[in-house]
Design a protein that fits this description.
The chain is α+β, with helices and mostly antiparallel strands. It is 44% helix and 13% strand. It is built from 20 helices and 13 strands. It has a five-stranded mixed β-sheet. Strand 2 (111-112) and strand 3 form a beta hairpin. The radius of gyration is 23 Å and the shape is globular. 50% of the residues are buried.
């Protein structure tokens, strides 16, 4: 099917967009590279109503949730502008086909996020790797050669001035009006908060939005642990910047704490120093001491916005990303239980019925899925954040492959943590095969997101590495996969060693080679993934969310 667009489409294509404040004018007819158009497929997302039990909350707390949702919508607008362009509303309205319009809403633009960013609307070429953070005509070489103090910073747009030279525009300048409104809303929410620490955090976060200085609020947030309602808001993750991995994108989660599940999880952070010491690498690759003040809790998420809502939906959060905060305080790990349960029931179980050996399907459990996801987030705190050879932070040294290396490390070290804690009897009466087989089924779930994103590349590196090591075998007649526990343990150890070494050395060439050689989907695997599609198994979920779903209207 071909989607018909209004003629004004050409005028608002993302390559043309620049900030008015920069003084540069956009060309009338931007040039885009040709690309094969794929079909819009909103049906790959299973619809899910995002609700939570708010009956135990006071009237003020319920009102605060409504205010935080309003602030979230501002973050959603800003992410649209970062990922696509400022004229996205008019562009959406111009799409005549309702199916394509809905798919554009889900993807925050004309590129299918779960099909390696393939365009699904005629007239668009490949998605710019730098999204709308950089000028479309800028090369990596031009950026690297430019004298721009702070050019690797998280919170600025790269634009051209009236002379065509590169310049930086801080977020708080580029989005001044919108951020001031978000600040007002956070301060209003602070006035409704019953937990005074949380109220202070909201005020600090409000100040951060209009200064682009987030460290103070990040540090304070680490100590805010008694509040029943929480919010993650601001420019946070850098995955949208596939050119360098420098620029952070706006997003928001509004959260309600699950007190019962949080109590079950709270003790695991204290094991981090011991697990760090046991990592299968020389001492110089684990010299940093992970913070033990880390917070591990379960939440029901009641609103997603911006980057968190684009394409595949996050089911766990590990923040802050600031390396200095992590070394001083650790991180907070937030498990989004209601979203996780939706993915388990609607996606993971049907995948297991199709691709996991019949004798091992009993090992695919929600508790193991929850645990593996949780320990993935905890594992972000293991390893080191600074290279051992003076190349700066791992993120600076590994550039555009830093995110995929970090996600790969968290995947495999999460399984390492499960294995070690199980050996020590800290997981109770749990069959380790539950975690291993659920881990295998989860690889198939995640691979369906494609191999373009950081998570996608990490998934494929792990799948292909494990395949080579014999961690699983495929039955050619049944078309199902069977886990070999002993070989999976060995493969997990070897891949852990490799990834930790690449990070510690800041070995960009080695990390890129690993990603390019193993971060690909082979023909046999693709054929198996196609079976899931033919079976009508959703790839991910999308939400009906907002005050109405929560009974706040």
């Amino acid at each position: 099917m071909t989607v018909t667009m209004f003629t004004r489409l050409a005028r608002i294509l993302i390559p043309a967009m620049v900030l008015a404040a920069c003084g540069a004018e956009a060309p009338d007819e931007p040039v885009v590279s040709a690309a094969e158009t794929v079909e819009p497929r909103p049906e790959i997302y299973a619809d899910f109503e995002l609700t939570a039990d708010l009956s135990h909350l006071s009237d003020s707390q319920r009102a605060m949730i409504g205010v935080l949702i309003e602030a979230s919508r501002i973050m959603d607008d800003l992410f649209w502008r970062q990922a696509f362009n400022d004229g996205y509303s008019d562009w959406l309205a111009s799409i005549e086909d309702s199916k394509a319009r809905r798919f554009a809403e889900l993807n925050y633009g004309p590129w299918d996020r779960l099909a390696d960013e393939a365009p699904f609307i005629r007239g668009f070429g490949a998605k710019p790797k730098g999204a709308n953070f950089y000028p479309a005509d800028m090369s990596k070489e031009e950026f690297e050669a430019a004298y721009l103090p702070g050019k690797k910073g998280l919170y600025s747009l790269v634009r051209r001035d009236s002379a065509g030279e590169l310049m930086l525009v801080p977020y708080h300048v580029a989005y001044k009006d919108e951020l001031h409104r978000a600040t007002e809303l956070l301060r209003e929410a602070a006035g409704l908060a019953e937990d005074q620490q949380f109220a202070t955090y909201l005020k600090l976060r409000a100040a951060a939005l209009i200064s682009d200085d987030f460290q103070t609020s990040d540090l304070f947030w680490m100590d805010v642990k008694t509040n029943e309602i929480d919010v993650v808001i601001g420019p946070i993750e850098t995955y949208e910047d596939r050119l360098f991995g420098y620029r952070a994108a706006y997003e928001c989660y509004v959260l309600v704490k699950d007190m019962e599940w949080s109590d079950r999880l709270s003790r695991f952070a204290m094991f981090l120093p011991e697990l760090q010491e046991g990592l299968p690498v020389p001492d110089e690759y684990k010299w940093e001491t992970p913070g033990t003040d880390s917070d591990l809790n379960a939440y029901d998420v009641v609103y997603y916005a911006g980057h968190s809502n684009a394409g595949s939906k996050t089911i766990a959060i590990n923040l802050p990303n600031d390396e200095e905060v992590q070394l001083e305080k650790g991180t907070r790990r937030l498990q989004l239980k209601n979203a996780m349960q939706a993915k388990f029931e609607k996606i993971l179980l049907p995948i297991a019925e199709t691709l996991i050996d019949e004798t091992q399907r009993k090992h695919v459990t929600f508790d193991a899925f929850f645990g593996n996801t949780m320990f993935h987030e905890v594992a972000h705190g293991l390893g080191i954040k600074n290279t051992i050879n003076g190349r700066g932070t791992v993120r600076e040294a590994l550039l555009d492959v830093a995110s995929s290396m970090e996600e790969g490390k968290a995947d495999v070290l999460g399984l390492y943590m499960v294995t070690e804690l199980h050996k020590e009897g800290e997981l109770g009466d749990v069959d380790i095969m539950d975690h291993y087989v659920t881990f295998m089924a989860s690889i198939f779930r995640s691979i369906r997101f494609g191999a373009a994103s950081a998570h996608g590349k990490a998934n494929m590196v792990r799948f292909n590495f494990f395949k080579e090591q014999g961690a699983f075998v495929r039955d050619p007649e049944a078309g199902t996969y069977r886990v070999d526990a002993e070989r999976m343990t060995a493969a997990m150890t070897e891949l852990s060693r490799l990834l930790l070494t690449l990070q510690g050395d800041g070995d960009y060439d080695g990390a890129r080679e690993l990603t390019e050689t193993k971060g690909v989907i082979g023909d046999q695997l693709q054929a198996d993934l196609d079976r899931l599609t033919r079976a009508g198994i959703p790839v991910d979920i999308t939400f009906r969310q907002g005050p109405a779903q929560l009974g706040l209207e």
